[in-house]
Design a protein that fits this description.
By secondary structure, the protein is an all-beta fold. It contains no helices and ten strands.
Length: 96
C-alpha cells in the first residue's frame, strides 16, 4: 500500500510505503529517485507488515521494486502503474 501526503506550501510529498509478504525477514525499496544502488530499509511492524516513510519531490515519477530477503524482487500491487524493465520483468511506478 502507498499513502501519499501532499503539503500546500512544500515542494515535496511524504510517501508511506507498507508491504506484506510471506516469510520476509527483510524488505528494502530500491529505485526511488532513479537510485538502484542505495536502498530504503523498511521496518517490520508487529503484524508482519514492513513500512517506510520517504520524502519525494512533487510532480515526479519513480520506478521502484521491493527487495525481499536480499534475493527476491517484488512489485507493489497497488502502484500507480507498472512498466517493463530491461530484465524482462516490470517495475512498480509511483506518480506524485
Amino acid at each position: 500500500m502507498i499513502l501519499k501526503t501532499y503539503y500546500k506550501t512544500k515542494d515535496y510529498c511524504k510517501v508511506k510505503f507498507s508491504f506484506k509478504t510471506e516469510n520476509a525477514e527483510t524488505v528494502k525499496i530500491l529505485g526511488l529517485n532513479s537510485d538502484w544502488q542505495h536502498s530504503v530499509d523498511m521496518s517490520r511492524k508487529k503484524d508482519g507488515t514492513f513500512a517506510a516513510d520517504v520524502t519525494l519531490p512533487k510532480d515526479s515519477r519513480h520506478q521502484f521494486k521491493y527487495l525481499v530477503n536480499e534475493i527476491e524482487w517484488l512489485n507493489e500491487p497497488e502502484a500507480d502503474a507498472h512498466e517493463p524493465n530491461e530484465f524482462g520483468g516490470s517495475n512498480s511506478v509511483i506518480v506524485l
